[in-house]
Write a structure and sequence with these properties.
By secondary structure, this protein is an alpha+beta fold. It has one domain. It has two helices and seven strands. Strands 1, 3, 4, 5 and 6 form a five-stranded antiparallel beta sheet that branches. Strands 2-7 form a two-stranded antiparallel ribbon. The relative contact order is 0.27.
Length: 120
């Protein structure tokens, strides 16, 4: 993972999301998300027409719950339905120079919770 912009490789994202699906239960109740990092995802999709969207995936890095984000691209199908395709870097592409990125910048709740919040 890049320490400065919190981008991860496609291989890391695949491993982490696969690991989440194999975990029977976790203690995560939410995620703390730094706004400046979320802006990286939003800047990737801001110039799109239509309805720009991002997608979040649940993931597990070792024993730490993660929420990873990707931008999407709206694709209208022949039947009129809409699919949002993940904007991903190519396998093995350098994440520092890739035009699309996968972002990991979350901290699980707990331990990053608000102890006075009724949502905990």
């Amino acid at each position: 993972m890049s320490a400065t912009d919190k981008k991860i490789t496609l291989a890391e994202a695949i491993a982490w999301t696969s690991s989440w699906r194999l975990t029977p239960s976790t203690s995560a109740r939410g995620f703390l998300i730094p706004i400046q990092d979320l802006q990286g995802v939003l800047s990737e999709i801001s110039g799109q027409g239509g309805t720009p969207m991002a997608r979040a995936y649940l993931a597990m890095d070792g024993g730490t719950e993660k929420l990873i984000f990707v931008g999407t691209s709206q694709e209208i199908q022949k039947d009129g339905s809409t699919i949002y395709r993940d904007l991903l870097p190519a396998p093995g592409e350098d994440i520092a120079t890739a035009s699309n990125a996968i972002y990991d910048f979350t901290e699980p709740v707990p331990p990053a919770e608000d102890p006075s919040s009724p949502l905990n």
